[in-house]
Amino acid sequence: MKAWVAPRYGPPGVLRLEERPEPRPGAGQLLVRVRAIGLNFADCAARLGVYPRVPKPPFVPGMEVSGEVAALGEGVSGPPVGTAVAAVPIFGGHAELVAVDARFVRPLAAGMGFATGAALAVTGITADHALVTVGRLRPGERVAITAAAGGVGTIAVQMAVAAGGQVLAVASTPAKRELAVGLGAHEAVSYEAYPRAVAAGVDLVVDAVGGSLFRPGWRALRPDGRYVLYGFAAALGAGRVRYLHAALELLRMGIAMPFSLVERTRTLAGFNLSLVPHLAGELQARFGRIEAMVAAGALRPIVGATFPFARLPEAHALLQGRGSTGKVVVEL
Ligand SMILES: NC(=O)c1ccc[n+]([C@@H]2O[C@H](COP(=O)([O-])OP(=O)(O)OC[C@H]3O[C@@H](n4cnc5c(N)ncnc54)[C@H](OP(=O)(O)O)[C@@H]3O)[C@@H](O)[C@H]2O)c1
Asked: What is the pTM of this model?
């Protein structure tokens, strides 16, 4: 099979298309013939060698795919061969075939195409976890969402609006802010305008950027406010990890004193869903709710760009270089 391999950690240009042996599904795994790859910012971080538990090079990145079940490993009873599925292998998905833990495979809802199927699992579950499970968003609350025009962001904006939140979207360009408003955001501001916009008070901040963006939102939390940090995009440059810049951005986040949580009745929470596989069963049920929202027309997966498999490194460059909106999908 063909696979995109990172022979070393580095910028998008390190990726090489190679012939690799076909993987065999192990116990508890399914083999998926990949039809579409949903690109995640985590794939860029993995390629750069800064994602948790990233394999040593050479390795095949690829967190999320859709495709058809090609074989069942020992102890796996379904879905049957040929079923269209979405799957989250975490690594290995930039390939024609990938073996995936069966707990992270789900049949695609009726009528859902492969591109949409590759665009919804990670974004939907992450947005749901940030807004609902950890963020406890209630109707009428003001919620700030950073990187609001991105893969997770476009889903989070729609979910927050559907839950009755007053959404303050933060994005870097006018076109991205327009997209967020088109999805229902009540306000959309640049990163430069954000400190002023949020200062009026906010109940929930859902932030995947971090760095110098953290303190304005943290300070603006109203009593019982929640700050949910689930990424650190501020650390990355267009090609490489800017370690000095990342260190400065970390310092700019400052220190949260535990007693200040009590004094101000506020919550600081963080998560990385790839590190909590014990949530797998719960995630399946949640994904069912997300699919139901899509079927009811309450949620629209946004695929901002598609690339053929042969041009996968360009898709990486677009995402890491901040050029994308919604989800970037690579089709096979
Ligand atoms: N913890 C978890 O379980 C989990 C799961 C999924 C995703 N995530 C995180 O959620 C975020 C969104 O993921 P995604 O795959 O949907 O990506 P994405 O939002 O489509 O793309 C990343 C966006 O981050 C913003 N950004 C801000 N500073 C940046 C910088 N220095 N370099 C590049 N981008 C920057 C850009 O939007 P603007 O141009 O508008 O700033 C960019 O479009 C990522 O930080 C990712 O790591 C976390």
From this structure: 0.97
